[in-house]
Amino acid sequence: MRYRIHSHRFGETILKNDEEFTEIWSEIHGIIQSISDEAIIKKFEEKYAGKNKSLSSTLNDLFKSEFIRRGWASESPIFQDRDYSENVWRLDFAKENISVEVGFNHSGTIAWNLLKPVIASELNHVEKAIQTRIGVIICATQRLQRAGNFDNAIGTYEKYVHHLKPLNTQLTVPIVIIGLEAPETFRIVEHVNEDGKKRGRVEEIYTDLIVDDATETYDEPLFDEDLD
Length: 228
Description:
By secondary structure, the protein is α+β, with helices and mostly antiparallel strands.
């Protein structure tokens, strides 16, 4: 997948230049780039097309598989105390000194998703189960939101970046926000199935033209440039 990056408190600079983080930062890039349009379509059509209208579960599934395959801890608890063991007190993924949140949920969770890497990195009165130094948040850009038929209320990359300024004092640790771009070859369109339920289906965005007995493929523009 293609993506864009926004850095808070020099997060990207640290990940790119500090020897402690360069290898694992490269690994995160590799995970994102390994998720191709073909892999997304295959997973969606095999597992989620019959019950979902967006790519949310598909992408969560693919990211979870890739992170776990490369040795990341999944659903890692921040605290040892059982009173704080619910999902809300867990990181999506953690490895060494980095925590990762993959967020395609409601925009109301943006502030909490931004605070979790801080809680995982700072000292606390509750005994910690993990101690990280930098947080990475992977989310959808507005273009992926539309192309993937996500709900309009999800927390997009643009909304995450918008939250950084008022939360600057609270977000005391370096954070990198990664915004996933729309697929290049397809989009998910909504339809109503035989049971009257809204579901998604894959629609390719290539147009095949026959030119001199050869087939050439051209990209159709997915969105107007002024939609952002």
